[in-house]
Structures are given as C-alpha cells and as structure tokens.
Write a structure and sequence with these properties.
The structure is a homodimer of 335-residue chains. Chain A has helices spanning 5-12, 16-23, 31-44, 50-57, 73-88, 102-114, 132-136, 161-174, 190-205, 222-234, 247-260, 293-309; strands spanning 62-67, 92-97, 119-122, 142-145, 156-159, 180-184, 215-217, 241-244, 269-274, 287-290, 318-320, 323-325. The first copy, chain A, is built from 12 helices and 12 strands. The mean pLDDT of chain A is 93. The structure holds a DNA duplex (16 and 16 nucleotides).
DNA sequence: CTGAAAGCGCTAACAA
DNA sequence: TTGTTAGCGCTTTCAG
C-alpha cells in the first residue's frame, strides 16, 4: 500500500514532522538530514497525499473548469490553453460539462466547491433563469471565459466579438450585399447575442433595413448550418452572403451551398467565427474571425491565478483581440 | 465562510454525527429529524467538504484522465464520452495533457495518485523508454484508452484498428492501386503502429512489393498531411491513393491535392481514420474509418468503474468495432 | 434513534 | 535543528 510519512519516520529514525519539513525543503532542517530523508522517500516511492494536505492547508491547487460543451473544438482548444497554463503553475483542472443546461451548471459549481477548488473558470449559460445570482455569491475567485453574464462583466476574459461581427457584416454591406443571412447561435449564449448585435448594428450603421427572416437561430452545430441553408435554397430564398455564428455552422452551410451548385465566393460569400484549426484546410479554406483560443485559455487561467493569490484585487474585464481572416470563401482574400 | 456540520449541529441542537447521518440519509435517523436537518442545511447553503470526506473514507470519486493531446478533436470527443459517463456515475475527472512526453506522463500519474484518484484512464506514449513498468506497478485500477502497451494489453479498451487499416489498403489494392501513400502517425503511438502494420500486411496478403518511400511518418497534424503531399507532388512522385493515419492528416493532404489540381477521387483516392465530426461536412466529404469515440470513452469509464468497485476482477482487453465509411474521396461510395 | 470519541494523513504552532 | 501536540472536517465505530 501507499507509503506514508509515518513509515518514512520509522525507517529514518526522525519524527514525522521532520520528515515532512525535510521533504518540503524547509530551511530549519539540516542538509544532511534532508538528503537522507529524500533518498529514503525516493527509494520507498513516497507520494504526498494531497487530500490530507489540502484538508490541512485549505488549498487544493485545483481549479474547476465548467465548459458548456467540450466536444466543440472551440472549447477544446480553449481548455487546452487553460490546462497548459494551469500545469505550468502547478495547478490541476477538474473538468465538467454542462451541455448548456442551467441546472447542470449549478450542480457543477456546487460539487466543485465541495471539492474545495481554489478557483473556477466558467463558460456559463445565459438565460432567463441563469445562475448569475448564485455565481455572484461565490466565495472563491472565478473568471468567465469567452462569455459574459449581466452584472458580472468584470469577471470576463473574452474577445472583441461584437466589434468583429459588425465589421464582418459591414464588409458584406459595402460589397453591395443586401441579403445577408445570419446563422445565429443559441440565444442563451452571450457570444450569440454579441454577434447578432454586431449584425444588427452594422445594418443600422449602413441605414439598411434588416430582413428578420434572414436571422435564423441555430444550436451552433455542423448539421444546423447544413439544414438551414438547404431549406432556404429549397424555398428559393435568395441570399448572397452568409455570416455564420461559428465555423461549424459555416462548414455545414458550405456543404449545402455546394450541393445546390452555388459558387462560393462568386455567388455567395461566407464568413465564419472562431477560426478553428481545420478551417483553413478545408477544400475551400474558410474566411473567419480568428479568436486566439489558446491565449484566451491561458489569460483566463492567469487572471484567475492572480485573484487566487491576491483575493482583494478588484476584477476588471479583459479582452483579447481577434481578427478577420479573409480566405477563399470571400471575394476579398489575403495574400 | 463555508457552513460546516458543526454549525448545522449547533443551530439544530443535534450532534455533528446525527447531522452527518441525516444528510447522508442513513436509516437510523428519524424522518422528522432528517427533515429538519435537511431544511436547515438547504437554508444555510451547506456544502459537504469532499476533501475531508475523502480523507476519512479513502474515496475521492474522482478519476484521473491522462490524455496525449486534448486539442486533437479525436481525444476531445473521447474525453467528452468519458466525462459524460463519469458524471452519470457521480465521478469527476481530473484532466491532464502529456503532449506525448514520457516524462510528463510519469509526472502526471504520480501527481494524480497523490490526489488519491480512484482510478486512471490513460492514453499513454509508447516508446523505447516508456512508463510500462511504472504503470504495471500501480495500485489503483487503470485502463488504457484507444491504445495499448506491451504486456498490458488486457488493460486496453480500443477499437479494431489493425483489421480496419488492412481492409482499407486491401480495398485500394483490389482497385488496382500500386502506389498507395501511407501518411503514418508518430511511431511512439500504438495506433500508428497498428495502422502501419495493417498497411504492410495488406501488401503482403496481396503479394505486392511495398515501396518503403511511400510510408512517411508524420506527427498526425493537419499541416503534416499538407506538407508531405505537397513535397511529393513537387518531386513528381506518382501516387494514386492515400491512406492517412487520421482525418487531420487526410484533410491536409486533400488540400495539397487540390492545389496541385489532382482530382479526388478520380486521380487520387483518399481514406482517413477516426471519422471526426466535421469530416463528413468537408467540401469533399472524407471517406474514413469511423471509430465510435464517445462509446470508446464511455466504455473505458465503465470498465474502469467495474474495476474500482471490484478490485479483484481480472482485466480483459475490450474492443469496440469501427467501420469504414466510404464517402466522396473514394470511388466506391455509400448510398 | 442519538451522541461521544477516535482518527484519516498531513502541516503549523510551539517546545525543547 | 528536531520533536510534541493539536487539528483541518468529516465518517465510523461503539455506547447509551
């Protein structure tokens, strides 16, 4: 069974305390003693029991990560950024999925608190009955990653989505498009709200009338883009540009366009959002708004760590800049 | 601060013990007492401290998941399967990445053991100096997911990769291809070894000579497929079929083929491996070997759970069947 | 049905 | 420099 301090103490002749201090490299233990104890620990394969340590110290060196859907490559990439940064700082992550369910989210927070995580990284659901109030009352430091919650904006680490969404649609409008389809994301996700707002404000700024039927809410999955665009084409609804909530939806849309024989970008221009790894390798490489996902994850963790180490510090909203990458699904193309 | 059993005891007039037993629904506490205590706990927002509980019970209800690279969509999907199954059984996952490094792997195992995980799910690196010996000596139950380690085959939950790889190449050979490029994965990953073995054995079975220069080792990333195939074409090396280690590499290859003007599948047939979510939505939907990733994750967790609950049970290798999906990058196509 | 006492393995005060 | 003692918050005997 597991080797304990007690065993090391018995085997070395020192007290449990001295062994503990030696292993933690405290400087009131003589070098020789340390050496002896260290050697013994290595020989017997001693592994510090972090559960006991955590109970005693009140620190777990673990943070909870509550993701909405980690099978979505976007989150997967963000989470990898988080994990990397966390590991580099001696932290571990306890990962949970909510699948955009408010109840699961609440449950997840509660369980993770029970596990005494030192902090929380959240990608929360935004809804009528969201957990904003509950989250606001948390004792542990927490950061909202890539999203926001009303009244908690200062806890967010995210990218400039509204601005970029607007820019995308403005680009379309300037190119003379009037029928710009917006394949929006779920309204319970703050990024959908921002991207949609960008769409509306771009129209407003260009003094163009919005055609509400060209705003279609999806769940943000591949199939959604495919089905919605297929349906539109079947109904002979004219569209000349598509601004998709994310790359997944855009890829689905691309597929539908191809099947119907519509030429991209000549007849229909398409811009996605997120710039997933594979998007530039598509047969028709996808124009998209590139969010630095790994950076987002890293920054989120680092910010959280700051607050763990310095609990009194006030929170401030942090933003990482994204940029529009023009590839083969738009007429304008980068060199 | 956090509400403790002590507070509930003081506030309710019962002893700490009774409160604890009431909350855990033990049947030697009277129903009314339970009700009172429960109400109080809910009111004060009591959350059980799992660290203390774990120290006392020796159970953490947490498993460690050591992934090679969770930004790879394949792992992301498997991990999601694991997380789902785990949550359904009241377990949480502590996620770590090794980026295919043996040292990080060893370190990760050790730290997770220190955190007293109830079991381990590994996607280990296979190398000269691998951690097989170390892993073999573990006290906690562990399962190797989607891979194998020599001597530990019984601990694996994986798919029938060798068979399917062979089948793929046999399909190519039967169609008259002689120059089949194999974009292999890293040799330190067991699935690469299996898929390559399938390639070789198919040639042997067809009594065809292998052209060693058509076996190219890659790291399994998108860019690799792109660069290797581009280089081959630049050197005017003739190839008429590509069997890629995974879909990522295949997509990169597809891109290179497109740039060079080679028609898929007429001039070059391509089959990938893994069948990632997006593969069927590519402009040219990718033929691939479909591994049921979520099932793999679920089965891995369930198997691990069996061993956690029943430590004496012997391990046996488990396999989930994959299947070849013929889409638009092959001449043969499913309806 | 309920309570008192012990102890999980560790670290932090305090003594020596 | 080292050892003794207490205690983190909980569950588990064992009494009552």
């Amino acid at each position: 069974m597991a080797v304990l301090l007690k065993q090391l103490a018995a085997a070395s002749g020192y007290s449990i305390n001295t062994v503990s201090r030696a292993l933690r490299d405290k400087d009131d233990v003589s070098p020789e003693t340390k050496k002896k104890i260290r050697a013994l620990a290595a020989e017997l394969g001693y592994v510090n029991n972090s559960v006991a340590k955590s109970l005693r110290t009140g620190k777990t060196n673990t943070i909870g990560v509550i993701s909405a859907d980690s099978s979505n490559p976007f989150f997967a990439e963000v989470i990898m950024g988080i994990e990397n940064a966390a590991r580099a700082s001696g932290y571990h992550i306890l990962l949970t999925n909510t699948e955009e369910s408010t109840e699961r989210e609440r449950e997840a927070i509660s369980v993770l608190l029970g596990k005494q995580v030192d902090g929380l990284l959240l990608m929360p659901v935004l809804q009528q009955h969201n957990n904003g109030h509950y989250i606001k009352s948390l004792d542990v430091p927490y950061i909202i990653v890539g999203r926001w919650l009303p009244g908690l904006e200062d806890h967010s680490v995210m990218s400039d989505e509204y601005e970029k969404a607007k820019e995308v649609v403005l680009y379309f409008l300037k190119n003379g498009h009037t029928d710009i389809l917006h394949l929006a994301g779920p309204s319970c996700v703050s990024s959908s709200v921002d991207r949609l707002r960008g769409y509306r404000d771009a129209y407003a700024e260009a003094h163009m009338p919005i055609q509400e039927e060209l705003i279609i809410e999806t769940k943000g999955h591949l199939e959604d883009g495919y089905h919605e665009v297929s349906a539109l084409i079947r109904n002979e609804r004219k569209i000349s540009a598509i601004f998709a909530f994310n790359d997944l939806v855009a890829v689905g849309a691309l597929r539908a366009l191809k099947e119907s024989g519509l030429k991209v970008p000549k007849e229909v221009e398409v811009i996605g959002f997120d710039d997933l790894n594979f998007s530039k390798y598509l047969h028709l490489s996808l124009s998209s708004v590139s969010i630095p996902k790994k950076t987002l994850g890293t920054l989120a963790f680092k910010t959280l760590l700051d607050h763990i180490e310095n609990p009194e510090a006030p929170y401030t909203k942090k933003t990482v800049a994204s940029r529009i990458v023009f590839r083969e699904t738009t007429l304008e193309q980068e060199p």
